[in-house]
Design brief:
This protein is of the alpha+beta class. Helix content is 29%, strand content 18%.
Amino acid sequence: MRVSALAPVAEEIFGFCNSRSWPALRACYLEIVGSSVELKSVKSAPVLEGGAVILIPLAPIIDKLGLGLLGGEHDQSELRFPPTLQYGGKP
C-alpha cells in the first residue's frame, strides 16, 4: 500500500496523534474505512463489515520513535512524549 493512499485522512490522523501522549497512543490503533478514520483502543475489536478496512497498530511506530529519540539508553524512558503541562507544581 502506498502512503499517498492515506492523504485524504492524513490531517485527521495527525490530529489524533497530536491529541494524546505517546504512552496513550501506544495502546491504540487506527481504523481506516474509506475516507473515515477512528482511533481505537487495542482492547476493542475492529469493525470488519463489508469493504476494505485498514488497521494500523501504533505501538510499533511509537516504539521505533522512542528508540530513535532515546537511542539505546532507556534511562529516560519514563518521560512522557510529547511533553505535557502538569498543574500544581512550584513556579
